[in-house]
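Table S4 entry, Major Facilitator Superfamily protein.
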Amino acid sequence: MPTDESTSNGSTRLSTGLKAGVQYWAPAIAVSLTTFIVVLNASLMNVAIPTMVDEFDTTVTVIQGAVALYSLVTAALVLPAGTLPSRHSIRRVLAVALLVYAGGTLVASISWNTTILYLGWSLIQGSAAAVIFPLTFTVLIISYEDDDRAKAFGLLAGVSGVGSTIGPIIGGALTTYASWRWGFTLQLVGVGVILFFAQYVSPNPLSETPSSLDKGGTALSIVGSTSLVTGFLLSGKYGWLVERRPFVVGEMQFNPFGTSPAIWFLGVGLLGFAAFVQYERRLERAGKSPLVPLHVLTNRPFLAGVLTYNMRSIVSAGFFFIFPVYLQAVLGYTAFETGVALLPYSLASILFSTVTPNWRKYISPRTLIQIGIVCMGVALVLLYEQTGPSQTIVRMALPVALYGAGVGLVLAQITNMTMSAVPTAYSAEASGILNVSYSIGFSLGTAVIGSYFLGRFYGGVVDGVLRAEHETVSAEQRTDLVIALEDAAETATDATQQQFLTQLTPAQRQLLEEIFEAAMFDAQRATLLLLVLFVLLLLIASTFLPRQIPDADAGTDHLESSQDATREASETATED
């Protein structure tokens, strides 16, 4: 029979072991929860747009501008912000970023006009998010190794997927039954919880000899990122190459030679990144500290991972743009029901992203990624086959879950594989590049997939009305009608839509409903096939990945000696 003393010792050991376990996994918990509230924040904002339009007495375009500016600020600052852990305490950088984020959240929650909303949500929160996103990868890289690192990245991926899925549910419920402001306020509680776990993050900077900020590289990276993302954001509305509609800023129109502004922004962005690479190369040859070391930019396994990660973000952006719109606009689901329909995705993605990291002992990580990509493609084909009036949440459950399982398999391996290709000392810079890639890929996916989907839908509506009226128009006139319909729909609120519908006869309303439904089904099917094409491109990109998780730290000594030799040769050449 155990004595009281042995029972007490057993309880003490259990308590000590539990405490040690919590402390060990605290960094993973901290960054996973951080990612969760940032992703949740974006979902809440999207759901609340109609309510904000009414409350601020403004237009949809103005509120969507806040979303676009948030994306721009994050994309512009994410690369220079990613290098902060190389110069400052990682724990302090995380804590300060969370406090700034909380400040932006507070400002957004009490905003009394769109200017204050832009300040709190777009500028302050966007700046904090630019620090947070790359920092999450850096914290996991320095905190864990081997299987534990894979598990931590899997947890991060799963939690991120859950955030994007339940965001519309929470946002819809709060917006409907309380206020969208509570969505921001509740995030303050989340920040408080995260700060508790953040105390166990490493207090040390990545580098023992912090270098000064590369101001030239920072400026060029901001120009490149901002211009590319702006170009993608403008392309859907104003066209990719030829002017689709006038682009007016203030009272000045910018459509040189009849071109779209998007092509100019994209050109400046590409030139900016080309100049950035050249500048970084010249800076490193001069023996100075570039924003991103050259060996990171030329690391083939790392670049293969960045390419695959970028392609995956394009597919993800496209899917999460069209699917909720389809569910709500055609099938008539509420934001809550849309979240329920996506629940199988959420459950499958978190299950496969957290359970499968150890499968790399038996199957090549590259093979697991490719199996996941195939699952995503098959799921999209199944959704294509189901698209129609008889589609239900139950019927969608299997393909949606299969898509989530595919995403989970990919994310369980790709981030770890990509970040592990770079020595830990340079994980901050690598994390910044990976997040820039994600931002650009997400904006590209939204632009390409979103503009194709909406163009197909509005074109289908125009064609349906013309057929009903037995009218024939030229291609140019059809384009003008599509653009006019887009502009009318963009500025219309629920009240103006209802006002328009009450002016129609029951037969006219029924005809319009049938035309809208047919156009949306056609647009959904066509866009799902386009997504399948991007999935095939993603599969091709994955063939460039290494078969196993790289161990860059094994070659760190060789790398450092090589860098010393390069620096020594540079100094000798200078002396000569």
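The CA atoms of residues 95 and 527 lie 42 Å apart.
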